[in-house]
């Protein structure tokens, strides 16, 4: 079963009471390049001393999940101040790996023995389950991918930006580059995971890079994909205009379209209709986040079906620019629809 083999590695990073940060264990193996990256991602190496309990992200198509906990005085880990438990996996499912990370952290905090962590890790890999510290059982199959996808709050995104949220929707439906900034990594991670829900029909969370540093190896990995949603905690990213078509500043609650992308993001009546629908749904207290996602998805499906109807051939609908031009639409609408058709693979080459 694919769910049972999604884990690829585990590791431990410790910060001792002298302030030294060291890798102390890994299984089956974590390369030196991965160790360097993950040491940067865990909060133990940061000078500000802020401990973030859980962070995650991806690098080279592999997800990393990092749980960090303080060590109480008098426990078996006498020389350790904090430690981070690292899990590497092929799938996006923060709740699953946060839960497993907590279990493994408690095991290590109470035993100080990485071999006991390994027992539970191997049980998850081979059986899809392991004992939990509360006399329960951690079961991989309890954590469905779709549930993880829907956990991000689209309602919060729309309510934060109002009608301007259409810029985020447009970027995602056209497969453009979105960069999100906030000085607190928890805010960036929470926000970025919600964005692919705007294009629910794709169910593609591989475009999300929730926690990226301005390091060349990470930027190179980001640029290897044609479209992405990338989160940063370094304000200097705003000046890296080659990295984004749309820049979302969560600190100031502002969205900026890159100068080079202004024409692509020219708004039309169609954009306005979609924006008004999103704002109306998000403001409705009777609608759950999942229902808002569904309403946006219905609008997108309607848009795609209208596009396909222009092609005539139901079995293999293909759109040409000439087809749209014959309709004599406003330039912004025509440009947007052709962009959507291109992103969905509907354009006749």
Structural write-up:
α9 packs antiparallel against α10. The strands form 3 sheets. The protein has a 5-stranded antiparallel sheet with strand order 2-1-5-4-3, with helices on both faces. Strands 9-10-8-11-12 form a 5-stranded mixed sheet, with helices on one face. Strands 6-7 form a two-stranded antiparallel sheet. β1 and β2 (21-27) form a beta hairpin. The model has no long low-confidence stretch (mean pLDDT 94). With 349 residues, the protein is an alpha/beta fold. The protein has helices spanning 32-41, 94-111, 114-127, 145-150, 154-161, 165-173, 185-194, 216-223, 269-283, 289-311, 321-326, 331-343; strands spanning 7-16, 21-27, 54-59, 62-70, 80-89, 129-131, 137-139, 177-181, 208-209, 228-232, 246-249, 254-257.
Question: What is this structure's SSE topology?
Answer:
Blueprint: E1 7-16, E2 21-27, H1 32-41, E3 54-59, E4 62-70, E5 80-89, H2 94-111, H3 114-127, E6 129-131, E7 137-139, H4 145-150, H5 154-161, H6 165-173, E8 177-181, H7 185-194, E9 208-209, H8 216-223, E10 228-232, E11 246-249, E12 254-257, H9 269-283, H10 289-311, H11 321-326, H12 331-343
Parallel strand pairs: 8-10, 8-11, 9-10
Antiparallel strand pairs: 1-2, 1-5, 3-4, 4-5, 6-7, 11-12
């Amino acid at each position: 079963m694919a769910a049972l083999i999604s884990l690829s590695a585990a590791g431990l990073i410790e910060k001792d009471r002298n302030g030294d940060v060291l890798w102390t264990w890994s299984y089956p193996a974590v390369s030196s390049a991965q160790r360097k990256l993950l040491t940067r991602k865990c909060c133990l190496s940061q000078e500000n001393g802020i401990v973030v309990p859980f962070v995650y992200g991806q690098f080279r198509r592999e997800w990393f999940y990092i749980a960090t906990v303080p060590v109480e005085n008098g426990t078996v880990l006498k020389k350790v101040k904090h430690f981070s438990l690292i899990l590497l996996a092929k799938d996006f499912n923060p709740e699953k790996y946060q839960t497993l990370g907590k279990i493994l952290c408690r095991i290590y905090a109470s035993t100080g023995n990485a071999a006991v962590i390994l027992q539970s890790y191997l049980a998850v890999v081979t059986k899809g389950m392991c004992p939990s510290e509360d006399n329960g059982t951690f079961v991989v199959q309890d954590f469905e991918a779709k549930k993880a996808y829907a956990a991000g709050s689209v309602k919060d995104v729309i309510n934060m930006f109002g009608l301007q949220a259409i810029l985020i929707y447009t970027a995602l439906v056209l497969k453009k580059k979105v960069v999100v900034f906030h000085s607190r990594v928890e805010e960036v991670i929470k926000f970025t995971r919600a964005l692919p829900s705007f294009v629910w029909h794709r169910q593609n969370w591989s475009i999300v890079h929730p926690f990226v540093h301005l390091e060349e190896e990470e930027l190179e990995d980001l640029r290897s994909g044609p479209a992405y949603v990338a989160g940063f905690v370094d304000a200097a990213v705003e000046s890296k205009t080659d990295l984004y078509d749309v820049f979302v500043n969560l600190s100031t609650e502002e969205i900026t379209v890159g100068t080079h992308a202004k024409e692509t993001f020219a708004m039309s009546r169609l954009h306005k209709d979609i924006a008004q629908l999103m704002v109306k749904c998000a403001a409705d207290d009777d609608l759950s986040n999942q229902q808002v996602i569904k309403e946006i998805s219905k609008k997108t499906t309607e848009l795609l079906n209208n596009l396909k109807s222009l092609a005539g051939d139901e079995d293999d609908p293909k759109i040409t620019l000439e087809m749209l031009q014959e309709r004599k639409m406003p330039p912004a609408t025509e440009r947007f629809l052709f962009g959507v058709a291109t992103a969905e693979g509907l354009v006749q080459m």
